[in-house]
Each structure stands twice: as structure tokens, then as C-alpha cells.
């Protein structure tokens, strides 16, 4: 890790390639290690948090970045316990451009729509977060909202991308979770507080705008009303 950060100061592309190599090796290195305590997963998460900005910010050309994405995608598919969940959530940023993000959306979106509209339960698409993150990065917000509306049950890990899209459009009141909805998990509430501080004049202002939960429910998109 220290070597990669050191190289990043003088050769960010080579450092990013080293970061990709390290991410590729996480699952093979930990595959046979007991991770039931959660300590290994936490360490892997910290490592990814440190590595991802190096890859995201690297001034790589299109060919190089496409190769990184292909390698990371293969590593994600081979990851047996989802150590690489964070690259999936930041996939749109890893793409590096609207064009590349849209390309990944076009590959995954039909599969995800088919799974979410299938009346039979249990449909699962490994690339779900990659698709949602890429929709957000590509600025295809309406498609993102329409896709989230297909979900039968609220799932904050997915719907937070919709919240981020609403905030990016300045639709802050609509983005705040309904305190009486299934979205009001501790994580959702924490994100709520973060968005209040980041995107508005302060929590006091939004508290006056939203007495309880009813004042914004009419504004909130269909997917966020559940």
C-alpha cells in the first residue's frame, strides 16, 4: 500500500495499475481464510477505500482504463464473498467518463430490468450496483429513477444511488428519506444527516421545510415513496 501511494506521486498511471493488481489478488489471497469474524472484510474494505481514489484519479487513456475495468470485472465475478463490493458501488467513477459509464449501462441494464420485472421471486444480478453507479455517473437520472421504481421492496443499498441523483439535481427535499418508510434504516438516517449538511443551508432549514414527513411526500419520486 505504501509503495503504491509513493509511486502515485510521480507516476499515477503505474500506481493505479498496481492498485488494480492488488485488488485482483484480494480474493485469491483470502479465499481459504476464515473471515467469519468480519476482521478480514473490514481490512479489505479499508484497503479498497485507500486504493480506489488512485485508480479513479489516474490520467489513463481509454484503452488502459478499459483494460483495468475488464480485469476488475473479472475479479468481481470470481470474488466468492463480495470483498470487492466497494469497486462495484463506485464503478461509474472508475469508468472515468460519461461515454464509458454509458457503455457499461447498456451492457447491464437489459439484464437488470428483466430480473426486476420477472414475477418469479429470487432474481439477482451481480452487476446491480455497477449498473446503478454507472447510470448516476452518466447523468442518466431519469432512467435510474425508472429502474428503481421496478423494485418490489425498498433496498437502501440500491436506492441510495437515486438519492445521490436527486441531490445532484438539487432536489434535496425529495431526497430525504421518509422517517416512516422502510428506507429509514440507521444507514439511511445517517445519509440523511450528511445530505442536510452538504446540500442545504443546514439541518434547521430542512427541519422547518419537513415537519414530520408529509410535506415532501407528494414531491418524492414513486420509487422513494415506498
**Quaternary structure of the protein:** single chain
Strand content: under 5%
Structural class by sheet pairing and helices: mainly alpha
Main sheet properties: none
Shape: globular
- Spell the H/E element sequence: HHHHHHHHHHHHHH
Number of strands: 0
Whole-number mean pLDDT: 82
Unreliable stretches covering 5 or more consecutive residues? 200-219
Helix content: 55-70%
Radius of gyration using CA atoms only: 19 Å
Question: Count the helices. How many?
Answer: 14
Give the distance, in angstroms, between the N- and C-terminal Cα atoms.
43 Å
Would you kindly provide a brief summary of this structure?
With 226 residues, the protein is mainly alpha-helical. The protein has helices at residues 2-8, 12-30, 39-57, 62-78, 85-89, 91-95, 98-117, 128-137, 141-148, 156-168, 172-175, 186-199, 203-209, 222-225.
Record keyword descriptors for this entry.
14 helices, mainly alpha, 226 residues, globular
Question: Could you explain the architecture of this structure?
Answer:
With 226 residues, the chain is an all-alpha fold. Among the domains are: 2-89, no CATH class; 155-160 and 169-226, no CATH class. Helices cover 67% and strands 0% of the residues. The protein has helices at residues 2-8, 12-30, 39-57, 62-78, 85-89, 91-95, 98-117, 128-137, 141-148, 156-168, 172-175, 186-199, 203-209, 222-225. The chain starts with a helix and ends with a helix.
